[in-house]
Amino acid sequence: MPTPPEPAARAAGPVTPDRPVSEGTQRLARVIEHLGITAVLDVGANTGQYAQRLRRAGYAGRIVSFEPVSAAHLELMNAAVDDCAWEVAPRIALGDSDTPLSINVSAESDMSSPLDFTAEMATLLDSSAFIASESVSQARLDAVFAKHVKPDERVFLKVDTQGYDDRVLAGGRGVMSRLAAIQVELSIIPVYRGQLDYRAMIERLDGWGFQPVLFLPGYFNKRTARMLEMDGVFVRED
User: Fold this and answer.
1) pLDDT, tens digit, for every residue of 166-212?
2) Beta strands of the chain (E only): which ranges?
3) Contacting residues for 114 by C-beta, under 8 A, at least 6 apart
4) CA-based Rg of the chain, rounded to a whole angstrom?
5) What is this structure's pTM?
6) How confident is the model at residue 2 (pLDDT cuts 50, 70, 90)?
7) Tens digits of residue pLDDT in 72-124
8) Cα distances (Å, whole numbers) of residue 156 to 37, 86, 129
9) What is the DSSP annotation of 8-60?
10) In angstroms, rounded to a whole number, what is the distance separating the alpha carbons of residues 58 and 123?
11) Residues 6+ apart with CB under 8 A from 196
12) Which of 41, 113, 202, 214 could form a disulfide with 233 if both were Cys (CB 3.0 to 4.6 A apart)?
């Protein structure tokens, strides 16, 4: 692997060291630093939790966040307002087409999804029930990539779109060669109908030349004592 450029100077974004940083986030930040990442694409940003965790872990490079749900998008813009290196894209969904998309809005906004819950999960996750729907414009990542990424940047793509991750990746096929690493949700027990499971997702990323370097625990359901999903970080082989 060629020696990556030095990461961006750690001064752009506000850092709040008084808040704890989990071991998983520390490891994620180390991967980002090791790869010399200068731009993180935060797809499915919700209200900005992921970007804020990276800031607390010391990452000060550029972040571009995408969020389709209107209420969450407003909170996201407020969270990023004082961070000159954190860009919030206009409200849009990223997927595998440019047709408008209907989003199921959950009572817990980080569970909102274009997909329906499976019958089992609709019962199990009753506090996350859908309470509304919103229509939003949709675009392919490879169609908007150049608007948000500079030609010389080393890019880390994070996708957390509640079962829609494979569609987001399909819409980014034209820019896969520009991605140094990808972080996606890996479904152990499908939460949404039509969601790709973890084995199929790993196989797909392998076919695109990305190998796993880090797995992070995800949603653990106490009622069933089972982990439903985890996150995987995959780095381009070359």
Assistant:
1) 999 999 999 999 999 999 999 999 999 999 999 999 999 999 999 99
2) 39-43, 62-66, 86-88, 93-95, 101-106, 130-136, 138-140, 155-159, 179-187, 210-217, 220-221, 226-227, 229-236
3) 93, 95, 101, 102, 103, 104, 161, 162, 163, 164
4) 17
5) 0.91
6) very low
7) 999 999 999 999 999 999 999 999 999 999 999 999 989 999 999 999 999 98
8) 6, 14, 32
9) PPTTSS---TTS---HHHHHHHHHHHHTT--EEEEES-TTTHHHHHHHHTT--
10) 39
11) 165, 166, 187, 204
12) 214
Structure tokens at 57: 């872990």
Q: How far is 107 from 98, CA to CA, in rounded Å? A: 27
* CATH number corresponding to 23-98+141-236: 3.40.50.150
Q: Return the amino acid letter for 105.
A: V
End-to-end alpha-carbon separation of the chain, Å? 5
pLDDT interval class at 18 (50, 70, 90): low
Pairing verdict, β 220-221 and 226-227? antiparallel
